[in-house]
Amino acid sequence: MRASRWLRAHKLRSVLILLLFLAAAELATIPWFDIARLRKENPVVTALMRQRAEEAAAAGKAYRPVQRWIPLDRIPRYVVDAVVVAEDGTFFTHGGVDWFEVRASIEKDIQERRAARGGSTITQQVAKNLFLSTSKDPVRKLKELIITFLLERELSKDRILEIYLNVIEWGPGVFGIEAAAQRYFGKPAQDLTLDEGARLAAVIPSPLRHRPDSEGRYVSRRTNMVLGRMEARSMVPSAGADSAGTDTAAPIPAIAAPDSAAAPEEDTSEIEGGGTDGL
Length: 279
Fold this sequence. Notes:
Elements: H1 2-9, H2 11-27, H3 32-37, H4 47-58, E1 66-67, H5 77-87, H6 99-112, H7 122-131, H8 138-154, H9 157-167, E2 174-175, H10 177-185, H11 194-202, H12 217-232
Parallel strand pairs: 1-2
Helix pairs in contact: 5-11, 5-12, 7-8, 7-9, 11-12
């Protein structure tokens, strides 16, 4: 009784205490040790994989995910570049969050009164895919930011990129670039051509709606966008170099992107997996 009287008399304090309690409970669920282990251990089953399995079970559908791990140095350099310029042009220079994109996303969302523009970096997408869900609630976003900063602190940029390329969704039950290359182009990722790499990068924002081997308007437009950005940054291989193993072992330089080369605004309200999500 005394506690209930105090709560009624101090409503604002009660709300603040409740919020602090909820925040502490959420912080307790941050996978601190799992993040540190990622320096040497490859993730096997991700949060997104589990979510998709639950969704399939709820719909009474069979679910057989495919994912094959491939080291970063076995993926052609131009394929890696295509993904970076498509999803996070300042990946090698930011600390986990692209604040320019955050501001642009908020302004766009307010203007259109919906999640109209994506703003997540590659590191944020790794955080979401490995440990969280596709939910857009504020608590999930807060946890995503915390995990993002932890990933940046514990892992190198190349390691974050390697995990990203191996766990993101590239279609129903298709996770990682090796499984995607086999599914859509019938070849290992190390044999992907420039155009195939650009096509894979093109569908990352909406992998359950668009196939990289499609000739549809969306895929063609975004593929051309990726190739255009690569050409502007002198990333397109010279004639005859578009083949397996081209410069895969060389360090990947930072990409100068004053126009912020994150995923474009189009169709980001339909994001379903690997790509950027509205803030």
